[in-house]
Amino acid sequence: MAQKRTYNNRVKIGNWNEDLFLGEEEMKEYLNKRERGELAVQKVDLLKENILKPVNLSVTNDGLLHFGDVVMLVNMGGENRECSAVSINADINSLIKTPSPGIQAPCGVSAGRNIQPCTRTAFIITSVDGSPEGSILHFGQSFSLKTTSGFAMGLYLTSDLQSFQKCAKKSRLQEVNLDESCSFLSWWKILYLNPEDRLEFEDQPVTANVKVLIVHCKTNRALAVLEDQVLCTRYGKEYEVAAHTFLDSHKAEKDNNHWVLCTSDPAGVALALVNRQPSAGINKELELA
User: Fold this and answer.
1) pTM beyond 0.70
2) What is the mean pLDDT of each run of 10 residues along the chain (289 residues)?
3) 194: nearest Cα among 258, 246, 278
C-alpha cells in the first residue's frame, strides 16, 4: 500500500529553520553583489560595453606611420585562415573595478576575426628611443605597441623566450601577451616584407596599410597568427597569436607573419586601404619617394 500522508503542507519538517536562514542569506548576498555590480552577467555587460567601444584610428595624410598613431594589426589571412586582427583576449576574470574599471595585467591576446576598430583591437605606436610623437617610424627602428588608455589600461604588447612554465597555451611556442611595464621585452621592429630588398629599405620610412613583418627585438622572432590553434574565447572562436617565424622553402616568411598596420584614410573611412593592397613594386616606390 502507498503510504498515506498524515500531515498537511503547512507542517514544517526536517531542518526547516536552517533552510530558511540559508535562503535568506543567499538572497542577501545576491542583492549585495547586484548592488556592487559583481554578478557575472553585470561583469559581462561591463566588459562588452567598454572593450567593444569604437575607436578612431589615426589618419595618415602622407601615407606613412608615425609615433603616436593609433593603428590595428591585421593579418590578411591565408588558404585556411580568415582575415583577423590582434585583439585583447580579456574575460570577466581579467576585470578590475578600482580605482576605475579596466583590464588587469598580464592579459592575453588572440587574433579576432572581427576587424572593426575598437578598444579591443586598437594599439598606439609608442617611442622607446626618445623619438618625438609625430615623427616618422623607420624600418628596423625599435618601438612599442600600447593599448589605448582608460579601460584598456595602456598595456604593452610583450613577449619573451618560451620556457616550460611560460609559453603559448596550445602551440607551446613563444607567448605574446599584454603587460603594464615598458621594458626591452616590449620592443618590436618592422622589417620590409621581401627579404631580397630588406637591406635596401633599412632605415627607410614605413608605409602604412601595406604588408610588413613585426619582429620582437629581444628574440628576433616574428609576430604570427596560428590557423591550426583555435581558441574558444568570450568573443567566439579566434586564432592563437605567438612570436614565431614561419619560413617557406625559399627562406621567406609565410603569410602567418604578414601584418598590415591599418590606419584611416584622409576621408576618415577606417580600413579602406586594407581591401586594396598595393603591389610590392608600388610599395617600393612609395617608400623610396
Assistant:
1) yes
2) 62 73 78 73 85 93 94 91 94 83 92 92 96 96 96 95 90 95 95 94 94 97 95 92 94 95 73 46 34
3) 258
